[in-house]
Structure formats: structure tokens, C-alpha cells
Amino acid sequence: MSEHNYWTRPQRVSRRSLLRGAGVGVAGLAGAALIGCGGDDDEPDTGDGGTTATAGPGGGSATATGSPAAGAVKTGGIYRDSTITVAPHFSPFHPGADPSYVNTFRRFGYYDPLWEVRQTADPERLIKLSLAESVEFGDDTTVVVKMHEAHFHDQPASNSNSKVNARMLTAEDVVARIEYLKTDHEASSNPFITDQVTATAVDDLTVQFTMPAPFAFFYENDGLGNNSAGGRNYELPQEMLDETTLREDIPIGTGPYMYKSHQLGSREEVVKNPNYWRPDVPYLDGRTLTFIADSAAEEAAFRAGQVEDIDFSDLRQRDSVVGDLGDEVRALEYPSTSGMALIANVRRPPWNDERVRRALHRSINFERINNVVYFGSATPAWYFSEARPERFPLGREPVMDLVGYNPAEAKALLDAAKSAGAYDDREIALMLPVEAQTWVDSGALIAEDMQDVGFNVRTFTEVRNVYLQLAGPKDLEDMTKPSDFDLTMSVFLDYVYQKADSGSFWNNASLEDQEIEALVTQIEGTLDATERAELSNQFETLLAEKASNFVPILSGTLYHGYQSYVQGVDHELSQSGKGGAQLEYWLDV
Amino acid sequence: MRRYALRRLAFFVPVLIITSMVTFLAVNIVPGDPAVIVMGLEADRDALERFREANGLNDPLWKRYAEWGAGMLTGDPGRSLFGGNIQAELKARFPVTALLMAFSFGFTVLFGVLFGLLSAVFQDRPADYFVRTFSVFGQSVPDFYTLTLLLIIPSILWRYSPPFGWVPFWDDPLRAAQQVIPPTLILSIGAASILMRVTRSAMLEVLRQDYIRTARAKGLRERVVLQRHAIKNAVIPVLTVSGTLIAALLGGSVILEQITALPGLGVYTFQAVLQRDLTVVMTMTMYAAVVVLTTNLLVDLLYGFVDPRIRYQ
Amino acid sequence: MTALEAPGLERQAERARRRVVLPFRRAGAFAYRYPLGALGASIIVVFMVLALFAPILAPYDARRSIALPLLAPSTDHLLGTDANGRDVLSRVLVGSQISLAVGFSVVLINVTLSTLLGLMAGYYQGVTDYIIQRSGEIWSAFPGLIALLLIVSILGAPATEGGNLLTIAWDMRNLIFAFSLGAVFGGSRLVRGVTLSLKNQDYVLAARSLGATGPHIVRRHLLPNVMPYVIVSATAGLGVVILAEAALSFLGLGVAPGTPSWGQDLSGRNRQFFDEALWVALAPGTAITLTVLGFNLFGDALRDMLDPRMRGSGRRRIRSDVADG
To answer: In chain C, at which end, N or C, are there fewer CB atoms within 10 A of the end residue's CB?
Structure first.
């Protein structure tokens, strides 16, 4: 294997530090990214190496493409992507509340991250190094990263080009990037980076990260995953670290593709970077990204062969398209990381009463929601979904007797709470974001279920921004003031959001329970994966015992399709978002 | 007439000022916090506050209004809260919407007036019934649904869809034609049906006037009667309705742009309203207001042009 | 006009008799002369009846999910179930309430106000015209859809728990307000334009030179001549309102999701399944088309009937003695 082999494990990662893990940070509406952990120097090559792509059977794929035999790869061609979200600017650091595929496309086209984190239970594949040639753990609080030699694009369209002048990426750029993220809160504000991490340049290609205390989620908190909203370890020239430049100038990075053209709100073209630091990839000459907001229109484009892949909106759409097109398309399915959950505002009665919360848990008929809204394709989940194996999810089964569907008991609990004066039969408003159709539909069913056991509940929808405002912290100065909602929906969240003051939008997801918070702190500081698994399951059980105000319901399945002439798709990578970092796609036409 | 036009033009100024004030107030009443939307869910309170401060969201309304107004007057609408350059967006998107409007309004007038005349001239004959039936159906089907069908049916039957993704018209006129003509045809059905009914109604009325009877009585050929006497007199209501249809088509073009993924001003504005992108909503409202005002003025001037009996005071 | 002499007793009795009999006779005459208009009227009546009795007629609770999604039509569910497992027939029935309540309210407000304003502006011109025209201009300067979106965003998407048409119209007041605001000034411009072209006609000038007062001329000479345009635009307006409600739903800002409304049922997830579950969109789509069709046919016939320059004797018979007073 060549020195630049993408898949080769870093030789200098010491066994002692068996990287211990990480966890997801982002819980954006679109889902979350994964973490990674280190390797083992006894095992130099994990077997998935190779200059061509691998098609490891990750994430429960339905149909699969085979691994292309070496030499069978065809180079050239333009890969045509589509997306339903339009990116308002070029910055990789200003994601906004719309985690956008466009930004993913741009990030992975224009920039290389130091590493990527993925969602897999396989410790060997949790982290994929990119610009980083090796990651070395000095002790529990320092990480030394050595980078490949990579040069910035020679991009004439960019105003910054003359300043950058296609020079080499250095450790100084990485340090400047960390400093920028620390000072400019508007860029992917992250308490971890802003408060904890210090980066220093050891030499031109070596950076050292220092933390004040051991932190299990270092990787994801600096890097975040392939499709997360807040990718932060994308390296770009320090000359461009300025908000306006980042947003509006044509991007320059070290990435595999270079900007070619774009039409605002519609289309973007990138071409292969001829000086990419990995000489073997990308196979394609370029990619285009087209913005198609409407899912019916996107289906039409896919059926007509105008785009190479599609994210189906549900099982029925996939069945319909695959049924019509047969062998001409391939279909994949992955468990979704984001899931669907309820958040009850624990600072508002009646949710401060445990009986009422448990009645809520017990009132929800998971099977009905699954059959009606998800066509039977969702799976029950508890706090973390199966798609987040590094979170050691307990699953719903072990806690069924605490929070499972049981309308009779829910009614009894609620009656008890009512007669004790804990619930005065006040109308509870279930707030739903109007853009999320499946949530709106599920919300209607949940409201019916709740009514059946005696809740006085109504649903109402808000456009996303109002929803965000109402569900967010009521008062930024005084977080003890209750937020403006009774009950709302959420994606699955992470450990950190069980802390009473996570300082973010999701603050309301916390039960504000001392015991739980202490456990979260302990998990964050536990580097050993086995220990953390034990604590994580303990965490999930504790939430069920206390009938948390965060009510996980189910986690869906993502359906993805692509034209069968697309070869070399790595399932595990596409799982974390099409248009992700994988470069080994090729077109067999 | 020139004095009238100038007076009307002078009136644009107060109208635009009032319009901008009302919009500014309305946009600021609308619930929703742009800071959260721009900064994302992970943003902490300091970040949100800093954003508000940096973008003047904490300033008193009058101050923000004054700043925005000053910017507009100097021809620089400013930046979107999301960081986009509004001027650049306008430049890129205007040709798309202009093309869509040109085609849809063109089709509307063409089919509306043509079939309206046909229908009136052949009143109560098969052609009339056919046109009227078509117009009734044309008016009663939601255009977002027909537009969806327009995309999905050919893709299932013939594996065809119009190309997605806009390239400037002159780079590839054939591509643009495929993207623009079918949906604007669909979009114009509704408006053309309305125009057709109005045209028919106006024509029928004119055809019953005494001077038409006189014209016929003195032996003029039907074609001459229609061309010289009838059509001219039926223009007023048609003109009025055409003016208002432009606004309707502008609304329809939002849906068209949304479904066919054409990057016009319609979706831009729509998204801005949804995302509470204050500067963009304000700016777009002002530009749209200028267009509407100009159209109204033109229609009023045309009244006098086609009907000398109308006097301007 | 001078005051009328007190009519004799027989004449009063005759008038009372005619008042009772005439509507039927007129309806019969109308149906005879305008069969298509009668068809339109019957469609309207049928939907009105359905809307009035929808809560009784609906076999299931239209708001509840009662079965698996996308079930084909069967004896249990005559029109199948929608993407949320709700009975399509029940939703179409109950949905007619919202469509008609919103449509009628808007058109009623629109016709009344726009005729009034348009006539005043067109006839009196001067200050009245100036104020009305300029207010209209200021309002119309707002791009319609943005205005609609802003209003709905400020006031919120309306929801209703059902009930009779009046309570539903009240629940839908946000939408009704938003739609009316947009339509009134447009309508008044139309009326004003027609008035302008009419007021210099000989018969108006003649009436004025004979000493007729403004209100009289407006009522007797202008109003009847303006009505055809108002009616045509109002009947078209009803369709436009129903469709606009659907379009707002498509954009996610119509009635609250889950509320049974034709527009709602034609958009959202229901729109995705037309190739495998056509009935889901076909039912509300047909309902919309039929209703708008009814109003348009009826409106066309009304236009022909009300047109004062309509030739032939039918008009005289139907309009009876109202004009002779």
C-alpha cells in the first residue's frame, strides 16, 4: 500500500491510547455525526485498504454493489447530485439551522478535514484519517496530529487566490482555524472548542491539541462527522478566515474538487483538483449539484436519469421507483441516526410530575405510528438509536416495563396525578414544525393516543423559525424562566443535552436531574470504551426509571437510491450522507 | 396626459414610503428569531446575542428602518442575514423570473384574448362551448398539482423530465426552453381562463351595442365590424384584468419555481419570508412594489390610449 | 324621481302574491333558458347541502387516523384511506365546509366592498377617487403572495374543530381576512374602470341633464351595468379563493395540518402517491374542480341574465317589474 493510502491505519497511533472514543455532538434537525476512535499499531492494515474503494457491508444495506476489481475503475465523467436544501453561502463554518447537503457537498468538494468520524460499531473503522497522516496520543489530554503535504487550490475565481498562491497547508493554518472558531462565536459555536482546546504548531506539518481534562468526545467535537451541521476541522488558508470572505468568496481549500461555477439558488459545478495530494483520486472529472426542493420533482429527475442518486422520502416512494426501474437502479437502506422524540417542558406543570410524564410514555402507541406514518419501516429505540453504535444504545426492550405502551396504566397514572392536583386538565399544546411532514403526521397520532388516556391536548404547527424560537430558551439571561411550549418534537439527542444548562437551543430537553447530570459528566471523562458502554447503559436505564421528559419514540430508516452504473459506493460512507467524503465513486458508462 | 403621468409618478414616492413602513412593521411583528435560524441550534446565548448586536436586531425600529432606507436610496440593499449579497442574488435571479413572467403572461394574453374573442363571436356554438368548458376546467385545477403531474407523468411514461438546474438563457437556449415553456403553459392556463371569460364577456356586451347593429346594417363585413368596431371597445375590462393577472402570475411563479427548481425571485422571497430574512423581504417588497405601481400606471395610461373618451383629470 | 303614489289595495295584494310565486317561476325560467347555469347551481346546492350536513354524513371522524394508510376504496372506506390512514370520503365531506365557508365569506366581502368602492371612485372621481385609488394603490403595491404569507405568519395558521359553516368561517377569519384584503382593491379597480367608461355614455349624460342625482345614477344606471363584470369576477373569485387556500397549503401555510380541507388533502404527503394511490388526491381534486365548475357555470348564466343590454324577451320576463317602479 502506498504511503498515501487512504485506508491505512496510522502507524503511530499508540496502543496505549486506543482512542477511546468520542461521541456525537451535533443534534441538528438533520441528524448527527459519528465519532471515532483510534487504532492499534499491532494491526497496520485493517484489510479494508486498497487504492480502490471498498464496499464494506456497513449499516444493513439492502442491495449492494460489489467491490470493483482493481483496474476495473473507469475515470472521468461528471457525477450529478441533487439536494433539497439550498445553501445561502460558501462558509463551512456557518451552518445555520438548516444542516444542508449543499454545505456537505461544498465542504467535501473544496476542503479536506483532518479526519472524519463515522457511525459504526467497528472500532477499527470509527475514524478515517484524511489530511492527518497520523494521530498520536501523548497522554489523556494531548493529541499530536501530523499532516500530509497538501497544497491549496490555484483558484483564479477567488479573490483570495493571489494571497494564498497555491501554497502548502501548514500547521499554522490549523492553529489559526482553531483560534478563529474560538473567537468568532458565530462560526459553529461549540463550548468545547471555545473553552477547552488549545492548538499549537509543533512544526510545519504537526499540530498539538491540548485539553485541560480527559474528554472522550475530542474527535467529534473538533471534527464532527460527515453530514453534521457543524463541520469544524475543514482546513483552509488562514488568509480566508474572515466571516465575509468565508461566506462570499469563492472557496479555496486542499480538497479533491475545485469550484468551477455556480448559479445562485440552483446549481453548482466543481471540477477535479489536478494537484490533489492523493494522486489516485478522485476518479471523476467533476460533480454538479442541483437544487430540487420538491421531492416529486426530484423523483422525476431520478427516473429520467438526470441525477445519479436520490434520497427517497419514504419506503413507498422507494418501492414505487425501484419497482418501475428494476435493475437500472440500486437501493440502499440505513437506520437513521436522528429518530423522533418528544420533549416535555419540565419547567411547566404538569410535566414536573413524574406520574404525568410516565403516563405520557405509556400512552404512545408506537406500532400505530410506525404502521401509519412510516409504513412499518421504523424501529423502536430508546434514547440512542441503533445507528449510533458508538453510543452503546440499550434499545427499548430492557426498559419496556418502565416506559412501554400501556394505556390502562397511563390512564391510572394520570387519574392519580389529577386527583393529587398535579394536573389540572389544562390544555397542552403539542407544537410541531410544519416543514417536517412525518413529524406532523406522527404528532396527530400521538395527540390521539394522549387524548385516549385522558390528556387534554391539541396540536399546532409552526414554521421552523417560530418553532425554533418557541422551543428555544425563553430568556437568554435567565435560563430558569420556562420556555414557551408545553410539548414538542425533537430528534434524538446526545448525553450533553441532559445537562440542565447546555447553553443551547436544546436546553429544554434536560430533566434537570442532579443524578443524571453527574452521570453525563462521568461519561464525558471516561476514555475507556468498555467502561463508557457500561455507564451509557446505566444512563439510559436511569432516564427510563425517572420517566424522563425526553421521550424517544422511534427511529426511522433512510432509503437511498442510485443509478446502477454508479460503481464503488461504500455503504458505510453513504450511510452518513450521500456526497460525503468518499472519493472512490466511478461511473460505468 | 403627460401631467397626469408625472403626477402619478410623483405619487410613487409616498406610496413606496408607506409600503416600506408597513412592510417593515409587519416583518418585525412576525414571530421568529432570525438569530436562531442563522446561528443554528447549537449556538449558545452569547453567540445569539452577539449576532443580534452585530446585525442591529437590538436597535430600535426607527433606527433600523432609517439605516435600511438610507441603504436603499444609495442603491445598496445590503446583505441578507445569512450573509448573501442581495444585489448579486437579484442579478442572478431576475432573468429567470423575467423569462417566466414573459412567457406566462404572453401565453395568458395570447390564449385568453384569442379564445375569448372566438368564444364571443361564435356564441352558443360548439367552439364557444368547447372553449368555455376548457376554461372552466382550466380555472378549477390547482396549478401545483398540474405542475407536479407535468414533471412526474413524462418521467414515468417516457423517462423524460426537463433538465434541472438553471444556466443563463443564452448559454443554452434549448435547455431554457425545455425548462420554461411547459410549466409556464400550465401556469398560464388559470390566468388565461380568467382573461378569456372577461374578454368574452366584454365582447358580448359590445356586440350587442347599437353601433355594431348599425355597422352590420350598413353592410360591413363581419370581419371589419369585429376589427374596427368591436374589439377596440372591448379592451378596457380586458386591460384591467390583464394588469391584475400579472400579480396573480407572480404569485403562481413562486409555486412554479418551487416545483421546477428554477432559481427565480419568487422562491427567494418566499424563503426569505419563511426564514425571517428581514432585509431580503424588505428589499424584495420594494422592488415588487415598483413593478406593480408601474404596471398600474401603464394600464391607466393605456385606458386613455385605447379609449379617448376617458379623460385624465 | 318624484315620490310614488300610494298603490291601490289590489295592487298590493298582487305584489304579495307575486313575491311568493315569482322566485319559483323565475328559477324555472332560469333553468329553462340557462340549462348549464342550472347545472352549476345544482352542483353548488349539492355541495352546500353536503357541507351543511357533513358532520352527520361523514362515516368516520375525519380528523382521526382509523385504518392503515393508502387503503384502496372498499365497502368500509368508499374512497379509500389517505396517507395518514384517515377516511378520504369523510375528509372530502368535512373539507367542503372549510372551502365553502372561506370561499363564500371572501367573495361576499369582496363583492360588496369592491363594488361600493369602485363605483364611488369611478363616479365621483375627485377626492373620493383619489383616496380610494391611492389606498388601493398602496395596498396593491404589496406583492400579493408576500402579503398573504406575512399576514398568515403574523396571525397564525387557522384551525377549526368543525361545527356549522358560520363557526367555521369565524375560525377561518385569519385566512378570510388575508384573502379579502388582497381581492377588494383589485375588484374595485375593475369596477372603477368600467364605471369610467360608462359614465360618459349618452344615457348617463342624459339622466344627469334631466336632473338625476348621483346616488340615483349610480344605483339605476351604473350598478346594473357594472354588475355583469362584478358577477363574472366574483364567481371566478370563488374558484380563485378555493385554489389559493390549496396553494397556501402546498406552501405549508394554509389551514393547520390535519384540518380537513381540500387544499390540505391535495398537498402534503398525499401528493406523492398519485401513481400508486390515485384516489387520495383524486377525491379532493374532483371536489375542488366540481365546485369551481359549478360556480363558473352559474356565474356565466347569471352574467347573461343580468346583462341589461341582453337582447330578447327573456330578460324582461325574469327581471319582472323591479325596474319599473
So the answer is: C
A119/A134 Cα distance (integer angstroms) = 20
Give the A:B interface size as CB pairs under 8 Å: 190
Q: What domains are there in chain B, each with its CATH number?
A: 90-276 (1.10.3720.10)
Buried b / exposed e over B210-234, threshold 16 CB at 10 Å, is eebeebeeeebeeeebbeebbbebb
Q: What is the CATH number of the domain that holds C296?
A: 1.10.3720.10
Residues contacting B173, CB < 8 A, separation 6+: none
Q: Is the pLDDT of residue A573 over 70?
A: no
Distance CA C69, CA C85 (A): 4
**C-alpha cell, A512:** 434537570
From CA B71, how far away is CA B66, in angstroms rounded?
Answer: 9
Joined together, the cell numbers standing for residue A118 give 463515522
Residue C206 lies in a domain: yes
- Which amino acid belongs to residue B59? D
Give residue for cell 424517544.
A552
- Distance, in angstroms, between B287 CA and closest chain C CA? 9
**Which one is the CATH code of A6-58+79-307+559-587: 3.40.190.10, 3.40.190.150, 3.40.630.30, 2.40.30.10?**
3.40.190.10
Residue from the list A313, A317, A440 with its beta carbon closest to the beta carbon of C257: A440
Q: Are strands A340-344 and A487-490 parallel, antiparallel or unpaired?
A: antiparallel
Cell numbers at residue B225, please? 365590424
Please tell me the total count of domains within chain C. 1
Mean pLDDT of chain A: 77
Quote the minimal CA–CA distance from C319 to chain B in Å: 18
With vertex at residue A463, the alpha carbon angle to CA A458 and CA A465, rounded to the nearest 5 degrees, is: 120
Q: Binning pLDDT at 50, 70 and 90, where does residue C148 land?
A: confident
CB pair distance less than 8 Å for C84 and A372? yes
Q: Is residue C11 part of a domain?
A: no
Judged by a CB distance cut-off of 8 A, whether residue C263 touches chain B is yes
Per CATH, is A340-555 categorized as 3.10.290.10?
no
Give percent of chain A with pLDDT exceeding 70.
75
What b/e sequence results for A450-485 when a residue is b if at least 16 CB atoms lie within 10 Å of its CB, and e otherwise?
A: beebbbebbbbbbbbbbbbbbbbbbebeebeeebbb
**Per-residue pLDDT tens over the stretch A11-64:** 222 222 222 222 222 333 233 222 222 222 222 222 332 222 222 333 333 333
Alpha-carbon gap, residue B141 to C284, rounded angstroms: 11
State the smallest CA–CA distance between residue A264 and chain C in angstroms.
21
Residue C273, in any domain of the structure: yes
**Best CA proximity match to C85, nearest among A365, A551, A428:** A365
Q: For residue A434, give the nearest of A407, A400, A415, A460 by alpha carbon.
A: A460
Q: Return the pLDDT at A55.
A: 29
Segment 162-201 of chain C within 8 Å of chain A by CB = none
State the residue range of the domain holding C140: 38-319
**Domain residue ranges of chain A, discontinuous segments joined by +:** 6-58+79-307+559-587, 340-555
| CB atoms inside a 10 Å sphere around CB A397 | 10
* Grid cell listed for A176: 489559526
Q: Which residues pair with A210 in a beta bridge?
A: A142, A198
Residue C221 within any structural domain of the chain:
yes
- Any idea which of A99-113, A233-247, B52-66, C143-157 has the lowest mean pLDDT? A99-113
Neighboring chain B residues of C151 at a CB cutoff of 8 Å: 26
- Region C38-60 average pLDDT: 90
